[in-house]
Design a protein that fits this description.
Blueprint lengths: L1 E4 L4 H14 L3 E7 L8 E9 L10 E6 L2 H5 L2 H6 L10 E10 L15 E5 L1 H11 L13 H13 L3 H11 L5 H21 L20 E4 H12 L3 E4 L6 H10 L6 E4 L3 H13 L4 E5 L1 H4 L3 H9 L6 E6 L16 H5 L9 E4 L3 H18 L3 E6 H5 L1 E4 L65 H12 L1 H8 L6 E4 L6 E5 L3 H8 L8 E6 L1 E3 L3 H9 L4 E5 L5 H10 L5 E4 L8 H13 L4 E3 L4
């Protein structure tokens, strides 16, 4: 873990390190926690690496790298009111180490730990020596931001990792006009690693080595926003609308950087109302359209979603990157508390699809396929994601693009182009009416947000109303039959388990990584993906034979549990909930499950400061 003030360079140093670990053949998971202000407040980046696949973080830290004293002991002012604000020294695992600035002159007894190794490194002195070595002596204060690389270099020297792999990544990251900066950073990293080896020989018990070259498989280190953006491009996205909001903005900014290379337009709108309505209009014009937002922005979109549904627009697809609420809540923290809102985003009954992605592979697949569903069923689609998925780095094999198929759904083919007999909302057995693309001969049509007849003309007739409601809502039965089971749910572990864990979204990784620690019990994990239309029969069949069930959710009310009970009549035996704005770690999953089972408690709230 590397911690320090926002703007102090923890992002760049942690991500350089993560990429170097991947290059050494290791599986990497990295995630950041930061405040919603821009500069100054404490933030920290966790990088976890192993020679086996990992999908989550752990709370114990084997190497803590501190750029300031707050990382070590927390903010003194906040500790007066909130004793849990104690920094990260308490998270260091026994035998682990801490790298910090020797210029802070912190006495060893302040750490109150005798089971960890202290490594005070004079950051500015090491930086100055590195600059002297490349002919830039006396300029340390000018390049003070490079203290982060000094701290990183010292930690690499202590854990024994190959610093040349890190330097390789540095040089690739600072190309062209930044080549000189690359050499300065490389010099600082080398000098710091050498200092640590010279002054603290054999002090850290846990070492980390790259895998042999022949064992290094080709893999990607990728964030959720990047996976979703790539999937949209592959799906043929024509228009992306958005209004800046954390954490969704990163995805739109990524697409903006790629737009010149594809037939794609990204529009920053004046607000989320404009974002959804512009996307609805584009969908009616035959363009694959999407909008990305977070909870506060989604709160402004229900009218637009109802408009899309009653006019049977082929979309749009709404990407809802969840964060802590309500209102502006926790802008840069993660939560999965928008499920019930996504299921009921407006007044009246109308059909739409809601799917929740649990990892990078699912985020890619769901993002791509959601455009096919929007076109095929002519309904809006909501893809539920979250901040943890958005900004974490995940290690995955290269994404297989060979089997991606674009399905534009039923299109109107006129039998007599000279006769305009087209009915946009024609009653059909499936409820899906062939749609006309702009310019189709004989395909002129009307539609309206008021109730309408098959021609799209406003009417309040009773028989027509009943027919149109059945037409639209009947699509949900068709969707439920046709969407493959792999998009509905996943069951990991033995079918005859003694314990069934139930969850959804990005908590998946922590649960899968926690299963081996629970293996003294026969345990499985039910991950629900398709939330609407809900696969009630399939989920009910699994849970009806489950012996003991534990619901695990990062929200206050257990929203998936409420949905399962509504749809199947089955209630989980226990609940492990977390709503402090931080994602579940694998050890929190284990602790929570063991606690509710040992105490036979109905519910357990997990929180780690």
């Amino acid at each position: 873990m590397i911690g320090g003030p926002q703007g102090g360079g923890i992002n760049s140093s942690a991500e350089l390190y993560a990429k170097a670990l991947l290059r050494g053949g290791l599986s990497v998971f990295a995630n950041i926690e930061l405040h919603s202000n821009i500069m100054g407040k404490h933030s920290y980046y966790r990088v976890t690496a192993a020679p086996v696949p990992i999908r989550s973080h752990v709370d114990p830290v084997h190497m803590l790298v501190a750029l300031d004293e707050e990382t070590l002991f927390g903010d003194a002012g906040e500790r007066k009111h909130y004793p849990s604000h104690q920094g990260h020294v308490h998270q260091i695992a026994p035998g682990g180490g801490v790298v910090y600035d020797a210029d802070l002159k912190i006495p060893a007894e302040k750490f109150e730990r005798t089971d960890i190794h202290l490594h005070p490194v004079p950051y500015m002195e090491v930086l100055e020596q590195a600059l002297i070595g490349i002919g830039r002596g006396g300029q340390g204060r000018k390049y003070v931001v490079m203290r982060n690389i000094v701290a990183l270099g010292a930690s690499i020297g202590l854990i024994g990792y190959d610093e040349e792999l890190v330097i390789e990544v540095i040089r690739e990251s600072f190309k062209g006009r930044k080549a000189e900066a690359a050499e300065m950073n490389a010099a600082a990293l080398t000098a710091a690693a050498a200092y640590a080896r010279a002054h603290f020989p054999g002090r850290l018990e846990r070492q980390l080595r790259p895998l042999p070259v022949e064992q290094r498989a080709r893999r990607l280190l990728i964030k959720g926003v990047q996976a979703v953006g790539i999937a949209k491009i592959k799906a043929g996205l024509g228009l992306q609308t958005y209004y800046p909001i954390s954490p969704a903005t990163d995805e739109s900014v990524y697409l903006e950087s790629k737009a010149p290379d594809f037939q794609m337009t990204v529009v920053q709108c004046e607000d989320e109302i404009a974002s959804i309505n512009m996307a609805v209009g584009a969908a009616h014009m035959g363009v694959r359209a999407a909008t990305s937002t977070a909870g506060p922005g989604f709160s402004l979109m229900p009218e637009g979603l109802g408009f899309a549904s009653i006019t049977e627009a082929p979309g749009p697809v709404v990407f809802l990157w969840q964060r802590g609420g309500p209102s502006t809540g926790l802008p840069t923290r993660s939560e999965q508390a928008d499920l019930q809102f996504a299921l009921h985003p407006g007044h009246g009954d109308f059909p739409h699809i809601v799917i929740a992605s649990g990892d990078i592979d699912e985020a890619f697949a769901d993002s791509f396929e959601s455009f096919n569903w929007a076109d095929r069923y002519q309904v809006p689609v909501v893809v539920l994601l979250d901040k943890f998925l958005a900004s974490s780095f995940w290690t995955i094999p290269p994404i297989d693009m060979s089997k991606l198929v674009v399905d534009r759904g039923a299109l109107y083919q006129p039998t007599n182009p000279d006769t305009n007999g087209y009915r946009r909302h024609a009653l059909t057995a499936t409820g899906i009416s062939p749609r006309a693309l702009p310019g189709t001969p004989g395909g002129i049509f009307s539609t309206t947000s008021d109730e309408h007849d098959p021609q799209g003309h406003i009417t309040e007739g009773v028989e027509n109303r009943i027919a149109m409601m059945r037409k639209r809502m009947g699509k949900l039965d068709v969707i439920a039959r046709e969407i493959p089971e792999s998009f509905k749910y996943k069951l990991a572990g033995p079918t005859d388990a003694d314990l069934t864990l139930i969850s959804w979204g990005s908590t998946k990784g922590a649960i899968l990584d926690a299963l081996p620690a629970l293996d003294r019990r026969k345990v499985n994990f039910l991950q629900v993906r398709l939330m609407k239309p809900f696969p009630a029969a399939e989920i009910g069949k699994i849970l009806s034979v489950a012996k003991t069930t534990v619901l695990i959710e990062p929200n206050y009310t257990g929203q998936l549990g409420a949905l399962i009970r509504e749809q199947t009549g089955i209630q989980a035996d226990h609940r492990v909930l977390k709503y402090d704005g931080r994602p579940f770690s694998r050890n929190e999953v284990v602790e929570g499950v063991e606690a509710v089972l040992a105490k036979k408690a109905k519910e357990w709230m997990v929180s780690h400061a």
